[in-house]
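Agenda item 2: pyridoxal-5'-phosphate complex prediction
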Amino acid sequence: MTATERVGLSGCYILGPEVQKFESSLREFCHSEYVVGCGNGMDAIEIALRALGIKAGDHVLTSPLSAFATALAVIRAGGEPVYCDVDKHGLINPDLVQACLEKNPKIRFVLPVHLYGNMADMHSLRKITEGFGTILIEDAAQAIGASRAGTKVGALSRIACYSFYPTKNLGAIGDSGAITTAEAELDQSARAIRDYGQTEKYVHSVLGLNSRLDEMHAAILHDAFLPRLKDWTARRRAIAGRFLREIRNPDVTLMPGPDVEGGVWHLFPVLVAAEQRIAFMDHLKSYSVQAGQHYPTLIPDQAAMLSRVQTPMIFGELAVARELVRREVSLPIHPFMTAAEVDRVIAAVEDWKV
Ligand SMILES: *Cc1c(COP(=O)(O)O)cnc(C)c1O
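Presented output:
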């Protein structure tokens, strides 16, 4: 029986045996003790913060260059995002994290984002946060299976958060997400929080969310998608390898991550001159190459953040993040690209003249 037939006939559609099976296969894939499936990646971050005891007004240091969901989850959990600048890879800068923690004792959490499929410098962040007694968690929505200098995503923090939004490296046919942790207590607590805070049927020990994982998503992820993730990642790496070797245009700057082999190439970002970006994207379009921008606006510059009573708390100038926001273009990369499509992307980039 296929996953859809199995679930359809089972009469159990939410948080049942298929979710357990998927959680256990993901545990193996992520080399993690515990996995808790949930509704989406944004909820995964909120659940992580709540399981770790975030209190109203706690400051959470994170990256301004990410999906809006990263900071929105912090606010939904009752925290206040604090932003510091990134390095040239778009990953939170550990030196600035250190400086920010020295200056702001209200920061209780540090939440790096593994942007574009590249891991932030978790070794430095772990050392720094240990020194301050600050809790480290990871937004790994773009980086399932990534590593950096031999260290895997999730290995050095209390909780790592994943999204299975359809465009992610492991994408469901709808919304879903998960957290991973090595701690039994956090596993138990996250399980309660995803389901109204229930520790037993009709026993509500904390105020939770409704962020349950559907059986259908879990069954399809388990049967059809997770078993292919290793091959898909290999394909992304092969395509990225071709882009890195064959794109030679001096007006297009490549952005290889800090560990090219360990990255999982959720995106393939390049940089062009800020005033040329629209023209470059139009040029690509004329070759039927659909490029993207990740991201065109920093999170603290978004209207929803500026209109809050609490104005965004920014440490320093965010100069690097602002430059990336003005210059970044994401070339198409996904495991189903044909060799001809990869050729076309390279040809289009090579034919670009300022
Ligand atoms: C996609 C994404 C999220 C949010 O995940 P959803 O499943 O869409 O809620 C959070 N952080 C980053 C970096 C993401 O790319």
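Discussion summary: The longest strand covers residues 34-38.
Owner for follow-up: CH.
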